[in-house]
Every structure is written in structure tokens, then in C-alpha cells.
Amino acid sequence: MARDPQQTPPASYARFAVLLPLLLAAQPVATDSYLPALPAIARDLGSATTSLTAFVLAFGAAQLGFGPLADRVGRRPVLLVGLVVYVLAAFACALAPDTFWLTTARAAQGLAMAAILVCARASVRDLYSARHGLQVMARGLSGLGAVALVAPLLGAWLVQALGWRAVLAAMGAYGLALVGICWRWFGESLPASAGAAAGVAPDTRPPWRQVLGNRAFQVWSAVSATSYGGIFCFLLLSPMVYITLLGFSPVVYGWIPAGASLVYIVSTQACGRLLPRLGVERTVQLAACCSLAGALIQAVGWLLWPGSALPLLAGHAVYVLGHGVHQPCGQAGSVQDLPEQAGRAVSWSGFLMMSCAFTAGQIAALFAPPDVRFGPWPMVLPLVLAGVVLAWLAFAVVPGVERAGTRAPHPSTGAA
Fold this sequence. Notes:
By secondary structure, this protein is mainly α. It folds into 2 domains: about 10-200, Growth Hormone, Chain: A, CATH 1.20.1250; about 210-405, Growth Hormone, Chain: A (Up-down Bundle), CATH 1.20.1250.20. About 80% of the residues lie in helices and about 0% in strands. It has 15 helices and no strands. It starts with 9 loop residues before the first helix and ends in a 9-residue tail after the last helix.
């Protein structure tokens, strides 16, 4: 039976505050540390990109299944099974004799990552009130950003010193450590009443319609998906802009996403401090101004100084300042009105975010030919569009949702 979080001892909240960034960081460990190994994998096995694609697609789609499962049977069993599969898949990848083996194992790891992420995010809503959960998520994403900063550098060192298989073995070791920590520290967070509610909806609508029809879920999922869509277009197209168009070396280019990760850490830390001072509405509006200003710096800067990397770099840094606020607010806000459907809400939010990013990236890539005749615009214009949408959401839509939440607050399910 699921444990009532009201009976959870205070020490469990402190342990979860430590566990959350470690669990969220399993994603950059599985992806960012893997990127430096791709050329070596391609040399030894003949192909590498299909394995990364399989991971991303499995991770995005599997969240829709693990959310309802975590609502029904609890967070702890789904999380622990996901971690064990994550470990086994990582070691299977390290032993892969061919591309098919590697791709299959990476797809299994993507499925496991979906279970880990869904349970980690849903537990935030189980244990904390809606407002406090925003600050907890901000701290957790700060830890993820720190790992995203270090992971590709560590992965590159392992590839150079020990070969690409060592990178995948290190993933398995990280997951194995998480299994041990979570076995001891991660108690069941699903409220006892939520287990029943997850199986029988309180109204006549199916559970998925309760989630997708919730106004707060719609708005906050749109915030996180829009902001991430702009970032994804940068990740997809920035090598073309900085290496092919501007002539940066791959080593120099590597410091650009690393620098963005550092800005992201600073921004998520600032988010946790701004929320109690300014409130959610004003904090998100400030972040939206950063998102739009950053995109406009890139666009106007390139028009005034074509061929200069400075406005592109400066504009991206300002955009990331907004992104570091939009993600914790969007991810926590999407479940704030759905304490008994937190698993489903998290899974749908994650799926929509990945779908938005994938669609935006594919459309932008259509206008990014190898000869880069369109310059940086395939990367810049999606950021401008994302900035405009984020400003509209923050100033025209979020205030109504926040006022509605204030008039009809949902009871806290955990620590305030």
C-alpha cells in the first residue's frame, strides 16, 4: 500500500532533496557523456547515430506508459525497476558487438530513463505543496545542469584514455550507485488516497482527459515545451552555425554548450530565490523578457554585424537565463492542480515537450542546407518565435491561471 506522505519523517524530505538532482542527472549522464564517443563507435561498429535516436524516441514515448503505472502501483517499484534496467542496458551497451545490439540496448535504456524521470518529477508533487515544489524543482534542475556541464568533458576524457566502452560502463556504474542509494533512501511517496484515485477517476472523464483538460497543465506544459523547443533548435543547428559558417574548431565549439550549461545553473539557482520574493507570475514574466530579448539580440545583432559571433553568443546566454526559470516553473506547474494524477501529468508533459522539440527541430532543419546559404537564421528564427510565444503566455495567459489557482487552491499533499 502506498504510504501517506503526511507520515513521512522530515529526514525523508532532506534525503529526497539530495536524491532529486541525482535522479534527474541520469539523463545527461546517458546522453551528454555519450556524445564524445560517437565518432569512435562509428569507427568500430559502423554507425552510432541510430543508437542515440533510439534512446531519444524510446525515452519520449515511454513516459506515456510509466506515468499511469506509477500512479497505480507507486513510485518506488517503478523507479527501482527503471534504475535496474538502466544499469543492465548500460553494461549491455558497453559489451555491444554490433550496431543492432547497441541500438537495442540504448532503446532499453531510454525506456528505463523514462521511468526514472517520471517517478522523480511525480514525487516532487507527492511530497511538496504546489508552490514549494517549484523551488524544489529549481534546485533539482540546478544539479542536472551541473552534470550536463561536466558529463561531455568526462566522456571525452574516458574515450581518449580508455575507449568508448568505458563511457558506457561508467553510465552503468552511476546507475548502480543510484540503485543502492534509492533502495535505502527513496521511500514510497504516492499518497494512499491517490492510488485508488488513479484507478477510478473522480469524474466521468478518462484520466488522460482529466490531465489534458486541466487549464494549469495546458499553460505550464506550453511554457516548458516552448522554451525547450528553442533550446533544441540551438542544439541541433548550432554546430552548423559556429563550425561550418563561422569557422570555429570543434574543440572551441564544445565550450559554447558548456557555457550555456553554466548560465542555466545560475538561472535555476536564481529562480529558487526569485519565487518567494516576486511570486510565480512576475518571475515567469521576467524570464519571458529574457527569452524574447535574447532572441532579438541574436536577430538584430546579426543584421547589424553579419559574420560576428558575439551577438549570437550573447543572445543565447540571455535566452538561457529565461530557460532556467521556465523549466522548473513549467515542469512543477503542470502538475500543481493534479496531485492524484501526478504520474500521468508528468508523463504527458514530458511527452509533449519532447514532441514539440522534435517537430520544431525537424522543421528548422529543412531550412539548414549543408552550404549554410541561409546563415544562422534557421537557428535564430525559432528562438525569436519561442520568445514571442513565451512573452504572450507569461503576460496574457499565466496571470489568469495563477488567479484561478489562488481562488481555488488545492490542498497541499506534503511539506509546505
